[in-house]
Design goal:
Layout (H helix, E strand, L loop, with lengths): L5 E10 L16 E5 L13 E6 L2 H13 L10 E4 L5 E15 L2 E19 L5 E17 L5 E14 L4 E18 L14 E20 L2 H8 L1
């Protein structure tokens, strides 16, 4: 490929909350190339996996995202931009550092473990002018339902790595990063709610099933492509 810089842009992340229909439907299912489901272990959490696909027509895509955001179905988290050279890695991450207690002969020390969503992209420009992206996405999050002896949370780790071929200015989508949390709350009138059989009329049970899907849109663009092509001749 031609050795000139390109712009790797994450258009945004989108949250889909409290619905059983994932907004990955923005991109027709037939466009998905890889589906990597991954289940979380026992606990209150649900499943977290990765799906990767592609979409063309960024103007139409942006309009649909804006419309869904106005309806309250989508929340655009951020739209960072990063520039890198051909065959050079670009990395973007967002998260928190969690203090973990470590016991040693010298005593108890505190170490910080990162729990974040991180994206690594290595672009390569082909002779045809398309962009081959080496993509690695990882999601580490704390699980406070399973803790260590000192109450430190367990870190759940999920990772996917793949290659996709995208035309200049088109968008590739990383989706299927699901988080599901279920809970049940029981409230009632003291004493009366404990009466066998009749107590059912004096208490209320509320069940919550919150589901969130994070979508990452990556739009690579070749910077100064015309000038670089002329210089190679």
């Amino acid at each position: 490929g031609l050795p000139f810089p390109q712009n790797v842009t994450i258009v945004g992340g989108a949250d889909d909350s409290q619905t059983s229909n994932p907004i990955s439907g923005i991109v027709p299912p037939g466009h998905y190339a890889i589906n990597l489901p991954a289940a979380v272990g026992a606990g209150s959490g649900g499943a977290i996996g990765f799906m990767l696909g592609s979409a063309s027509g960024n103007a139409h895509l942006n309009l649909r995202l804006s419309a869904l955001e106005n309806q309250g179905a989508v929340k655009i988290i951020s739209a960072p931009k990063i520039t890198t050279l051909d065959n050079q890695k670009a990395k973007i991450g967002q998260g928190v550092s969690i203090p973990i207690s470590v016991v040693s002969a010298a005593g108890v020390n505190t170490q910080f473990v990162e729990a974040k969503l991180e994206l690594e992209v290595s672009p390569h420009i082909t002779q045809e002018g398309s962009i081959l992206l080496q993509i690695k996405v990882s999601k580490n999050e704390p699980d406070f339902s399973r803790t260590g002896a000192r109450g430190d949370p367990t870190i759940l780790k999920k990772e996917a790595e793949t290659q996709v071929l995208v035309r200049d200015g088109d968008t590739t989508v990383i989706g299927g990063i699901y988080t599901r949390k279920t809970s049940e709350t029981v409230s009632g009138i003291p004493v009366l709610s404990q009466i066998p059989v009749l107590g059912w009329f004096f208490r209320n049970t509320k069940k919550n099933d919150d589901r969130t899907e994070l979508l990452i849109f990556i739009t690579p663009r070749i910077v100064n492509r015309l000038q670089a092509t002329v210089s190679q001749r």
